[in-house]
Structure formats: structure tokens, C-alpha cells
Amino acid sequence: MSGEASAQGTSPRAPRPATQKSSGTVSKKGDRGAKEKPVTVLPQVGEEEPKNPEEYQCTGSLETDFAELCKRSGYTDFPKVVTRPHPHSNFFLSSEKPTLDDQRLSGSCSLNSVESKYVYFRPTVQVELDSEDKSVKEIYIRGWKVEEQILGIFSKCLPPLSQLQAINLWKAGLTEKSLDIFIALLPLCSPTLRKVSLEGNPLPEQSYHKLLSLDSTVVYLSLRNNTIDDHGAQLLGRALSTLHCCNRTLISLNLGFNHIGDEGAGYIANGLRLNRSLLWLSLAHNRIQDKGALKLAEVLRPFELEHRELVERRRLLLAKGAQERSGSMDHEKNQLTGVISVALVDKTEKMQAVKTAKALGKKKEKSGEVVKKEEKLGSGQSPIQGTPKKEDPTKAGKGKVTIPEQKVTKGKGPKMGNKEKRSILLDSEQLVAEATDMLNPLLEPVEHRDGKVFMAGNKVLLYLNLVRNRITEVGLDGFLTTVQYQAQFLKSKSVSKGPVGLLRLCLADYWYLEHLD
């Protein structure tokens, strides 16, 4: 009994219902004030409040900046920035047989083994680094959807990359809105960014032509596997060139693995009529037949100008003639003003010379009279009377030296300099005006035949790929005629500089060969 009583004495009393908290802790009567106050939860050690991404200053390190901006934007699980893997270094064939330990590891189904197997497929931002300074040259995003907020993060951490040259988005789930954000991002990046690849990103409105605006800096553009049809080809053809403007920065355009047919090929050919910057074009693996192939072949040899093109050509010629006439008149005016200014300078110099000669003559006469007086006076004259007479020639000499030099420098030097500067500026302006006018293909030399005007054709395009289309012998004959004309054009003696025409034409895997009897 005593043992039981002692045990009961050591055990704590059961708390009253009035003093029991919801958390199970015991409180006294004097703790009512503390009980009514709200409990403040302190953050754990190492945790920080989310910061504003606008306040972050990028350091130029893509890995650090991207991770920090994602954290500030509220992302807990975001893609990591990793170096782009090279298949030749990771994948190889081995003739060795797997050991028993390897078989056991391959048969295990632990969580670590599964994560290690599928870590390759996790979303990442792959980068290609420069071999010397380890700066980011290219960015690859493959197989995961790039949201608008991620593009906003890229708009902050990509501009500090001074050596960025290419951005590749493969199956990134782009939308019309995200494409607009991406296009607005490009001018913010370094001027070294020239290559853009948007492959496997089909859009319902097919607004890829926005990448070819007049202020675009994209030089190499790849739009493969985007289900671009004839409507998308029409928009791209207009972006290449129209009657009043044309793209002058794009050099390479890849439209392979799309749904472009004969009508779309015709739109691309219309874009090539007045475009003089595109050197490389791929239309491989499309649905182009003989009709579209003939349109492409006709643009590469002399073609007839349309009525609206003739009207625009005449307008440009009239504007050029008026500009040349106004330039020549300004040049003649400048020459006349220069002659008049030189004549005035010569006249002032002659007047000054006459004045100085008269002054010298008068001074000589005065000096002669003084000598005669001195001879008459003889040696009895005091030296004080001769001192003021010696000062007069010095004063006259000072006036003689300073006055002509000041007038000559004011009248001759600066005027001749302004004349030379004006003539140089006029010549440079004329050269620039002629260069800008010659950039317009409608001002190129033409040929008149049977009352029609023919242009020499596009000879700037060097590479054309039409592999795996539906072209038959009819289309091949059209390209044969084009190649023969360009070869003859190169052999002519009049050709010394300028474009040379096609250097490579790919027409392999003919569709008609598969259907021959």
C-alpha cells in the first residue's frame, strides 16, 4: 500500500478541464493573458523570405542568375543549367561481358537506380561553353515546355551573356504569346546572337514571319518540323521581300519537314524575286511538286517584271535622277562660292600690298628728307633730337608686319578649309545615296525583249535543298535550264564581280523514281 501511495505521489496530477490547452500542455491560472495572445511562428534556420526578382542584379553567370531568379519568382523545382552532353563521349560500344555485380545492380528496383536512369530526361538548360574563357556560347532547351514566366527570367539573365551566339528551342511548347515574348527578348541580348532554332513548335496562326521583321538581327533561322503549310509560307515569303521593303539580315532559312506545297513554294519564290541577302534555303521533305519547282527555278534566271514592279522601278529611277541633279547643282554652287571667295581673298591681298607699298614709299621720302636736314645741320646737332626720328621707323615697321598677316590668315585659311570640308561631305553623301539606291534590286540592269522588261534573276542564292519532294522530270528540266543559264552567265567576259548563282542544288531521292514501271 505504501509503495502504491508513493507511486501515486510521484505521478503528476491530472489537469483540470478548464486549464487544459488544445495542444495538450498544462497552464496555470495566471497564464490566461499569455494564453490569449497569438503564437508567433519563427522561421526555421536557413530559410529566408522570398525576395523580389526585380531587385536582383545579374552577375553574368547563367547558372547562378537563373537559379536565383527562379527562387525569387517562387519556383521550388526548376531546371538546372548543365553543360551540353556529347554523345560520342558518353555512348560507346563495349565487348566486355557484364559481371555478376552489374547484373545485380541492373536488376535492383531501388529509388536511386530509377532516378539515375531517368535523370537524363529531366528538364535542363543545356549550354555550350567556349573552350578558352568558358563563357556561354549556345543554349539548348529540349523536350519541356517553356512557360511565359521562364521566358521573363531569361529576359533578365541572358542579356549579360556577351558571347551568346545561338538559342535552340526544340519541342518547347511555344504559344503565340510566348513567341512574342521570345521575339522581344532577342534585341536585348548581345549583338553576337545570330542563330535561332525553333524546331518542333507548331503554332496555329503560324506567325513565324515575325522573326524576319525589318529590325530583326537573326541571321540563321531554322523552322523545321513546325507543320508550316501554304499559309505560313505566304507569310514567310512576304517577310523575305515585298515591293517596298525586304529583309537584309537573314542568310540561312531552313523550312524542312513541313507541309509546304506548290502554292507555298510559289510564295517563297515571290519572296526571292527582290531579296538579295538569303544565301541558303532548305525546303526538303515537303510536298512540292513540279508546279512549285518550276516557280523556284524561274526566279533564278531572267524573269519578266510585273506591271506593279515596272511602275515602282520608274518611280525609283525618277527619284534617283532628281537626287543626282540636285546634288550636281549643289556641287556647282559650292564651286562658284569657292571661286568667288578665292577672288575676294586675292583682291584684298592686292589692296593690302598696294597700301603697304605706298606706306613704304612715303617713309623712304621722309627718311630722305631727314638725312638731307642732318647733312645741312652738320655735327652740331644734339643726340636728343635724333632719338624720336629713330623711333618712327620702328613703329611703321610694326604696323607693316602685323596688319597684312592678320588679314591674310582671317581671309584665306579658314575659308579654304570650309570649302574642302563641304566638297568632301557632298562627295560622301552622294556615294552613300548611290549605294543605298543600288541595294534595291529594281534598279539593277534589265533587258528589253519584245516589249517586255526582264530582270537578270536572283543570283545571290547559293544553296537550295529540295530533297524528298514530289518533283518529276518536268521540274528537273526547269532546274537544268536554270543551271545552264547561270553557267553561261559566269563564262561571259562582262562578269567580274558580284553574285555567282547556285553552287549546290540538292534534288536527291526523286519521287518519280519510286513510281517508275
Descriptive account of the structure:
There is one protein chain. With 517 residues, the chain is an alpha/beta fold. Helices cover 47% and strands 10% of the residues. The protein has 15 helices and 13 strands. The strands form two sheets. The protein has a ten-stranded mixed β-sheet with strand order 1-2-3-4-5-6-7-8-12-13, covered by helices on one side. The protein has a three-stranded antiparallel β-sheet with strand order 9-11-10, with no helix packed on it. Helix 3 crosses helix 7 (148-157). The longest helix is centred in the middle third of the chain and has 71 residues, at 307-377. The protein is flat, with a radius of gyration of 44 Å. Residues 1-15, 17-27, 39-47, 89-96, 373-377, 379-391, 393-416 and 420-438 have low confidence and may be disordered.
Task: Write a brief caption for the model.
With 517 residues, this protein is an alpha/beta fold.
